[in-house]
Design brief:
The chain has a six-stranded mixed sheet with strand order 6-7-8-3-9-10, sandwiched between helices. Mean pLDDT is 83; it is low at 118-123. It folds into two domains: 1-88 and 179-240, P-loop containing nucleotide triphosphate hydrolases (Rossmann fold, 3-Layer(aba) Sandwich), CATH 3.40.50.300; 99-178, no CATH class. The longest helix is centred in the middle third of the chain and has 19 residues, at 126-144. It is built from ten helices and ten strands. By secondary structure, the chain is an alpha/beta fold. Helices cover 36% and strands 25% of the residues.
Length: 240
Amino acid sequence: MNKNMESYIVLKAQKLGLKKGKKEIFRDISLEIQRGKIYGIFGPNGCGKTSLLNIISGFEKPTTGCLFLYGHKINKYDPLHFKKYKNGITRSFQFPNVVDELKVCEHLLLPFRQQNEGFTSLICCKKKRQRNEISYQKKIKYVCSPFPFIKKKYQDKVSSLSFGEQRVLSILCTICSDTGILIFDEPFVNLDPMFATKLKTLLRTLSQNQSKTIVIVEPEINKQEDFFDKVVEFSSGTSE
């Protein structure tokens, strides 16, 4: 592989293995994820796909193997630590990760609030923070525009949304995060076909126009293969 190609690899896994007690979840998983591409990881339930996502997003430590993020070897597996590397990683989960008591508009602001916590926000002047928030509001408007229910229920509590709408909201919050790598765990499973089509169009636009790197886990390929730039199939705890 030449140096130009290597510079586009944002995440690299070398012979990752995971054991829980005496049970081997998977072994010898090697991946190279390039910037601005959409990857699909497919495999039956229980083969270790979600555990792999946990590792590459910092929620779990592998038993064997190495992980490189933006060329840096990872020694500390923690989601906050991962965000220190350039634009970092944000992921969604199989079930909506939402706060029922917040309004929809408040929930969409959570990624902005989280990114502006701590020391950086203390030294950031008020005017700059306001400019950043205005810019973020524009991002929210753009990301949510394909989903009219967001505008309609903008001031409503998250608890008033249907389960499918909560799933979409959770996914949109992941997209709104200012990170270079977006990871989704089964976003299309049992999702309304209209929502799924709009979401795929949005993700493709983000990968092409903003060079976002997108990794999606799904149990079956079905008719989705054409959507992905590269497909990785899990079988018996290994990748093919």
